[in-house]
Amino acid sequence: MKKVYKITLNLLEPLKQPAMAIGFAFLVGAILMISTGENPFEVYGIMFKGAFSSQFYLSATLAKATPIILTGLGASVAWRANCFAIGGEGQMVIGALTAAVIAIYLPGPLWIRFIMSVLGGVVIGGGMSLLSAYLFEKLQMSLSISTLMMNYASKFLAMGIVVAFFLDTSVTNGMLKQTRQIPEGIRFPRLNADYALTIGFFIAVIIVFLVWFLLNKTKYGYESKMTGFNPEFAKFGGINAKRIMYLSLFISGVLCAFAGVSEVYGTYFRYVSGSLVSGQTAWIGLNAALISAYNPIGVLISSIVLASIQTGGTAISRFTDVPLEIAQILQGCITLFISAKIVIKWRLKKKAVKVLEEGGN
Questions:
Q1: How many whole angstroms separate alpha carbon 282 and alpha carbon 256?
Q2: Distances (CA, A) of 44 to 22, 84, 168, 236, 312
Q3: What is the pLDDT of residues 110-141, one digit of tens each?
Q4: Where are the domains of the chain?
Q5: What pTM, to 2 d.p., does this model score?
């Protein structure tokens, strides 16, 4: 019995942090609703129904969660190794554009175009991430700043490339900055023609377990964890911190770029300028990584919950007087609580190091 209890606790461990952060955020949301005369139980009931109550709503939620899961995994791999990169958005954009262009213009059989398209998209996303690692190593440029700037550069560079070379003028007279559609034969199939969910979600779930295995059952996973705890201690223990940084950022870039590729193949069927940044998918993915403490299983659960807040938030705005912005308030509160936890943890760690240093003197 004790063994079963212990196994159950281990299985539920990835859910502890997301549950606490989300629970506190919903409590704050409830207080705000009460202050405006709304019944939070009714509002949250409508939110739940708008996210999960039918196949249509569930399909929309899981479809929205797909790129969040992938960008959350990308952030988890990087941040776990003490690489605080926030370039997921730019990697999504460049990966999506590359995949779309190759799928549309590469000659040859569709299956070759599909493979080369996906490979091209994820490799260029990983390469972008490697560039930030190089800038950090050679010029000591902050990973956070360089990757953030690359987000803006990628967005406008992709827009310029589309307008100059690949603009589809057959619809809207080219007013909408987008490429032509990719061939139908290589699009991600939908589980139901009337719903948004494609096999992309199930591919993302498979990747969740592959990343979990990578982080928990391989030498790289152990070394990245030790590097994340204390880079200096890791170096002293014989771990090549530079190699771990490059590898972690490359894997992170590949995962984030695949999030963009999955949107091209499963949602838009083309590259549409601005579509991948308007929903702040990469930032929500980073939230999912933070609230799950970089645990891939936790990222999966957190991403679905965060996606449901968005899809359920539209139902709230339709059927109650509570504005759509309640979804953003809830997500902001989740970020706030997780940020507070990270700061407290960092201060305790700093205090412990100071005590040890004073004790050594």
A1: 8
A2: 13, 34, 42, 51, 9
A3: 999 999 999 999 999 999 999 999 999 888 88
A4: 55-295
A5: 0.88
